[in-house]
Design goal:
With 112 residues, chain A is mainly β. Chain A has strands spanning 4-7, 10-13, 19-25, 31-38, 42-51, 54-57, 64-70, 73-78, 87-94, 102-103, 107-111. Chain B has no helices and eleven strands. In chain B, strands 2, 4, 5, 9, 10 and 11 form a six-stranded mixed beta sheet that branches. A five-stranded antiparallel beta sheet of chain B has the order 1-3-8-7-6, with no helix packed on it. Classes of the chains: A mainly beta (112), B mainly beta (112). Chain A binds chain B through residues 1, 4, 31, 40-45, 48, 50, 56, 58, 90, 92, 99-106, and chain B through 4, 6, 32, 34, 41-46, 49, 89, 91, 93, 98-100, 102-105.
Chain lengths: 112, 112
């Protein structure tokens, strides 16, 4: 498995506060993804990156921004958290050679 | 509009018997399909995949079948073991697209 870590693993924050989640990988994979998982919806793509400084929007990108200044780090920022962003967030990576994505352990975010 | 559907939220199977998990899709442009397994509080892990040019792929106890005319794929687990109890997601890839489209998942429970 790819070495993928996410921090923090759990976070509780208040509505209106900014939040940044970090994904760190040690495998030098080119592609990185941020998903959210909610009951009944499976995994929904928020943003993805296909290289350093190259990012694009996914299916549910409203209210989120991302940055990738280094190959190993992909940051997800909620500029002003809302209760609808309470979810479990997963980071994933992929090499360019295969389609399989490798996932981090997830971050459980609660917005009160 | 869900392009990948897993219509059974849960499935209960006796240990040692066959588990069959189903997935339907609507987009005929999908060219690659993947199955992932997810335990609680962990990220999804890749299980098995199949290209749209094939109709079957086998890996140990796991076999994936693809019926393109019916836009249907299934994952067979034989024999089922207690450690197979998890949520299973199917995902599909669009040609020349970096994204995977995910089903909502099926919770498999293996009874002793």
């Amino acid at each position: 498995d790819a070495g993928i870590t996410q921090s923090p693993r759990h976070k509780v924050t208040e509505t209106g506060t900014p939040v940044t989640l970090r994904c760190h990988q040690t495998e030098n994979h080119r592609y990185m993804y941020w998903y959210r998982q909610d009951p009944g919806h499976g995994l929904r793509l928020i943003h993805y990156s296909y290289g350093v400084k190259d990012t694009d929007k996914g299916e549910v990108s409203d209210g989120y921004s991302v940055s990738r200044s280094k190959t190993e780090d992909f940051l997800l920022t909620l500029e002003s958290a809302t209760s609808s962003q309470t979810s479990v967030y997963f980071c994933a990576t992929r090499t360019g050679a295969t389609y399989e994505q490798y996932f981090g352990p997830g971050t459980r975010l609660t917005v009160t | 509009d869900q392009q990948v559907k897993q219509n059974s939220p849960s499935l209960s199977v006796q240990e040692g018997r066959i588990s069959i998990l189903n997935c339907d899709y609507t987009n005929s442009m999908f060219d690659y399909f993947l199955w992932y397994k997810k335990y609680p509080a962990e990220g999804p892990t890749f299980l098995i995949s199949i290209s749209s040019i094939k109709d079957k792929n086998e890996d140990g106890r796991f076999t994936v079948f693809l019926n393109k005319s019916a836009k249907h794929l299934s994952l067979h687990i034989v024999p089922s073991q207690p450690g197979d109890s998890a949520v299973y997601f199917c995902a599909a890839r669009l040609d020349s697209n970096y994204q995977l489209i995910w089903g909502a998942g099926t919770k498999l429970i293996i009874k002793p």
